[in-house]
Automatic annotation (TrEMBL):
Top-rank taxon, per record: Bacteria
Pfam families: LysR_substrate
Domain LysR substrate-binding: 27-117
Designated name of the protein: LysR substrate-binding domain-containing protein
Species: Acinetobacter gyllenbergii CIP 110306 = MTCC 11365
Length: 121
């Protein structure tokens, strides 16, 4: 297919519409999280790939360790919001099958994690 002036104009229009959509999404988020209203948790996952996919393809926001998001920030696939109200809480947890806790290795591993979190307090 041959690239024409029409293609360039169409691309420019789509780009402007996309930027306007992104601005409206941020304005909507700000309107929902101030004046007594607050954001709420809609999705809790243990898979960061799923979480990042959801954020990139919806109007969702997330919080997490910043090192996970650096590659996406460099590629400009996500943006950091100056979000202050209400504060996000983030926590890590271990998910395991109930039967596996009976193994000695699993018990030692969970004790090691618990000790680490107690030291961080």
């Amino acid at each position: 297919m041959k690239l024409t002036l029409w293609h360039l104009i169409l691309f420019w229009i789509i780009h402007l519409l996309y930027r306007e959509f992104q601005n409206k999404k941020i304005q909507w988020l700000r309107s929902q999280t101030h004046e007594g209203r607050s954001a709420h948790i809609c999705l809790t996952v243990n898979d960061y790939d799923l979480l990042i996919h959801q954020v990139k393809h919806s109007d969702a926001i997330t919080a997490g360790p910043s090192h996970l998001f650096h590659p996406l920030l460099k590629q400009k696939e996500i943006a950091i919001l100056d979000y202050q109200n209400p504060a996000f809480t983030w926590h890590a947890c271990a998910v395991y099958k109930p039967i596996s806790i009976h193994s000695m290795g699993m018990k030692l591993f969970l004790e090691m994690i618990q000790d680490w979190f107690e030291q961080e307090k």
